[in-house]
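Same chain as my last thread, 371 residues:
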Amino acid sequence: MKAVALLFLLASTACPSDKIQIQRDGAQWLVTVSRSLPAQSLDRIVSMGDLTVRGRSIKNIRYTIAQRLSTDEATARRVSKTLRAQIAGGQLTFEEPASVRIEVPRKSRFMALGSVAGMIDAADIDGSVRADTAAGRITLDRIAGDVDIHSSGGATSLGSIGGVVRCHSGGGTIRAVLVRGQSLFETDGGDIHLGDMMGAVRAITAAGGIRIDQAGAEVFADTLGGPISIVRALGLVIANSGGGPIEIGDAPSVRCQSRSGTIRLNNVSGSLRAVTGHGSIIAEILPGHPLENSVLSTRNGDITVFIPSDTGVTIHAETSGSRNPRSIVSDYSGLRTVARGSSVVATGRINGGGPLLRLTGAGGRIEIKRR
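reply #2:
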């Protein structure tokens, strides 16, 4: 991202162009200082408190600093003289812990925003945005370019983003509605909920759940201790959970693993690999789409697979811990079932045969159903 075009000319002391308002608001005094600035080059804005930025069809910059005080009018007037902006080395800084609202030219090509102890809220920017905050939440919407976000612990909320997204949170939740480029989302302890992701997606959380409504390409989802739900993906889905269920709604190829949780695959095709240490597996093969060599395996649970009548597969199914031949059942004829030691094995061709579908379980049943 190129730092080009936010422009300012500032003074650090009061100027005739400053508009100061002091008014009572209930038990408090509200102090606001507003100013309009002509253009000079700037590439970063930093606020000690909350920072709100809006793109407008303007050439200059307008900002308002607001602070609420539980004090008397005389003190409020003294405080109004300290609410100033400083500029040095291409950085505009608001040093008081006040709320800052800035209107900037919509066509700014790059904007770096920082807040030390507050939130960042930016929208309606045609260029790219970088946002950093130590403690507050970050909200970005209607950003046409790329987005780069770093938060030490606050929540992140994204609306419509036109480019690539890179987002890291030290522990907050992450939500995104629409991202047109590829995206990377990481959080050390919160949930990730993504809407329409038009590019490839990587979503990683240390302790939360992951939900992706739609992805236009490949998906990688990883959590150490929560559920994963991916409603639809147009590319390969790789999903790993250290201790929760996994559900994939519609995908052309799947690789998923859970240490302890049920895995459900709906409307899947291509190459499938689903492994869980403790839980059941339910897989529904999408009609009219070819299946490749696949594996469904659980160490403690049932396996149920729904196979359409237009999908040919070769079955190798095995369940251990029981010699009961009814531990493997099929709606399709043509499978040969035998007992081998403490296991039951069923092999054969369904719908004329095809790629190998290997089903392995322990302590449960394997059911092959007609879809």
